[in-house]
Amino acid sequence: MLPSPDPRLSEAERLVSPRDIVESGLCIGCGSCAANRPNARMVWDRDGFHKPEGSPTWYNAPAEEFTRQCPFSPAAINEDAIALARFGQAPETDRRIGRFEAAYVGHASEFPFRPLGSSGGLTSWVAAELLRTGAVDGVVHVAPADADATGRFFDYRVSRTPDELMNGAKSRYYPVELSRVLEQVRAIQGRYAIVGVPCFIKAIHLLRRIDPVIGDRVTHTLGLFCGHMKSAGMVESFAWQLGTEVARVQALDYRIKDETRPANWYRAHLDLDDGSSAEQDWWHLADGDWGAGFFQNPACDWCDDVVAESADVSFGDAWVEPYSSDGRGTNVMIVRSREVLQLVEAARADGRLELTPVNADFIADTQAAGLRHRRDGLSYRLTWNKRGIRPRKRVAPAADLPLRRKLVYRLRYAIARGSHRMLRLARYLGRPAIYARWARTSLRIYQSVTWSRGRLGKLCDRFLGAAKA
């Protein structure tokens, strides 16, 4: 059980409002604040993210409940405190990946989880096993939506059978929010598991502290490792670059699985309204370099949790060899709950899961770039002047980085924000090529710094001894 909120707020923990968080660029769009507030809802903003909307007395007025509940509020308890309360008996603790009972690399042997997943199928397998064993009555997860009917390509839904669950398998790099699906959780009694990225899992735990119904009914959390969240604008950009318009896109797959190709060779696929399709490898797209930060949510620059440290179990891709070259897909998994550990070990003994135990160093190596950006990069960003609320994080502000690393973080920050502005401009003028040219130029500059053969990168390495990007 999580500790009760401390009624005393320090000066650094001043009360904040939804407007404060939004205008400070700290709103991730999770929807938890609108989930327990009458007449509040989540709406699209101009950059393709979800933002809260409600009565002026709620949206504009600082309040203790919201201050304690928002995952990016300076006064919200952090991931360390949540994990200590939930997994205090866990035998392993690591500053990079948190508390845990065990960690593994592998995949689901049981059909059809691995073939239908983007990676090794372990996320869907654990969720389905919780349903099969009766540990939960429903799983809250992201699945394709009817874009024409809902205005969204993906949305949260509740699945109550493994077959329903498998319709939502695979990765979704698209903004979603929890407010509407949590209404279903409140309306229908039962036990629920929720699948989400780290900040969403944290938001659920904070909501559980103040909402007794959610606290009673959400019994399991399944976390997804996260690099950052993308806006809906990325779909529009992909459509333009594949010779079509976003209005014609009926469905999309961000990661077509092909067992003959390495798992990290992403290929996007669009289904169009005339029955045709279009697809392309990410590296041929102007904004297909994930690390450059195109269409990133601004709040992601102020997050320090890569591996969902407050979830019962969390999953990522095994981005190390030989696993990253295996087109069938391979997961890494961190188990923090003893209940989930027992479930996983029983299936492993039965041959339903093919898993090899690993240590924290192995997990951290698979997420080295993300951890570097969320720790060293975050420390540097915390030294910048920032409009509005300053976040309180588990890393201290520090600017003692090589110039090359500073350039990398400055460029990512500029690309993330510039991509939204340039997409809006291209849309307004009806000239997609404006965005594509800007994106390709920005990517060349970024890669010149980050790649060892890039001219700027060589200069930084030669004269300043910069660390490898």
Put the structure in a nutshell:
The chain is α+β, with helices and mostly antiparallel strands and 469 residues long.
Describe the structure.
It is a single chain. With 469 residues, the chain is of the alpha+beta class. Among the domains are: 88-230 and 293-370, 3-Layer(aba) Sandwich (Aspartate Aminotransferase, domain 2), CATH 3.40.640; 388-464, no CATH class. Helices cover 38% and strands 16% of the residues. The chain is built from 19 helices and 15 strands. The chain has helices at residues 18-23, 32-35, 56-59, 64-69, 79-87, 113-116, 122-132, 147-150, 162-166, 179-187, 198-210, 212-217, 233-241, 338-349, 360-366, 368-381, 403-429, 432-450, 455-464; strands at residues 41-44, 50-53, 92-94, 98-100, 102-108, 138-144, 154-159, 192-196, 218-224, 249-253, 267-272, 277-281, 313-317, 331-335, 353-357. The strands form four sheets. The protein has an eight-stranded mixed beta sheet with strand order 7-6-8-9-13-14-5-15, with helices on both faces. Strands 10-11-12 form a three-stranded antiparallel beta sheet, covered by helices on one side. A two-stranded antiparallel sheet has the order 1-2. A hairpin with a 3-residue loop joins strand 3 and strand 4 (98-100). Helix 17 (403-429) runs antiparallel to helix 18 and helix 18 runs parallel beside helix 19. The two termini are 41 Å apart. Mean pLDDT is 92; it is low at 3-8 and 464-469.
